[in-house]
Amino acid sequence: MNFRINNFGCITTLLGLYLVIACVNDNNFETPNAICESDLSANFTIGELKALYVDELIQIQEDYVLEGYVVSSDIAGNFFGTLHIQDKLANPTQGLQLEIDLRDSHLFYEVGTKIFIRAKGLYLGKSKGAIVLGGVFSAFGNLSVGRLPAAIVPQHLYKACDPLGILQPKSVGINELDDSMLSTLVQFSNMEILLDELGQTFAEKEKETIRTLTNCEDLELELLNSGYSDFQASFLPEGNGSITGVLVKDNKTYQLVIRDTTDIAFTNIRCEDLVDEFTSTKVFISELADPDNNAGARFVELYNSDSEQLNLKGWTLRRYTNGNTEVGSTIDLSGYVIEGNTTFVISPNALEFEAVYGFPPNHSVSTNSPADSNGDDNLELVDPFGTVIDSFGVIGEDGSGTNHEFEDGRALRNENVSEANPHFTPSEWTIYNDSGEGGTINEPQNAPDDFDPGIR
Predict the structure, then answer these.
(1) pTM of the full structure
(2) ∠ CA 10-14-15 to the nearest 5 degrees?
């Protein structure tokens, strides 16, 4: 995306008027908004045009004419050098970013204006993950899409004589976004500014700035603001509500750009204070497995002894490798719920786990994670508030040859244990290994016969 330097005022406007007047072949000196084209009709869609792009810059050679409706505006300085259009006033299927070197373009192409684009001679390419149309830019022998010079814009962009259309922003969720929505007008509900960013301005002066939008499900979306916009120094709104804007992209990250602060209607109470993270002493580590015959069949099992389910948002499982006192790896349990009186099995190799035990794990993670211990590591189960709820082993002590070694075996929580314990207590466990000290059973265990994941 590009941004406008809002320092041109009346001079810029007069220059823009001159450019349009200079293109008139007769003495009809109407205002730019009164000049329209009634003889053109579209013969190609935005979607068809974008489909022409295949990994390299191309110049359009055919007499393609596209139509679309303007959705962006540089009136408040938050857009600069670009014009965004979509193929329909409501429920668009495609949008397109046009690169144009026309300041104060809102004087010529208002939001809702239907325009025709003569694409022949223009360049189609990709910028920051989005397909764009414009002129050509050369740098060190490399060509890319650049801004179409202002004097050339009237040769490719024509206003239709239709009345100004009323755009209906498409209501979407953050997890529903896809590239077909780029350069279209979208609207999100139940949004708010991230708590940590409240009290800040929309943007730093003269600097493109990213702020963060979030919803009550903690999904996030970047809000892209210009440091030259009229509202740059305004404080971010504190409430919750709807926000409308043009969807753009920075490589793989979707971003929203508003036309003006009127696109924001945060009039509701924030959802920040809604309690959606919970602690419990009823969830604990119930089994650790390091089969002697198959390292791919390792797992960690949790158990919820309560009758009520528990949302594991914010919960983590931490591994301290060997005798280390620093965390070596973690598992984020957010997004999962452990039902009442039920186990929750975590595997570092889901395919092997299912092949060995006959059912998939509840959570598949990577190797070298807390679920992939070779029996001499120490683990902690931590709640959303940073409190250690349960532990296995002694932090800082290598488990080899100790009363918490389960190498080539298993550590099974005794059935009479119904609450978590932040302090490792050997009497709560039955531990099998190949070389542990007294109190453990020196008897390596093989999968699947010696293990029963998912059963408490």
Answers:
(1) 0.59
(2) 115
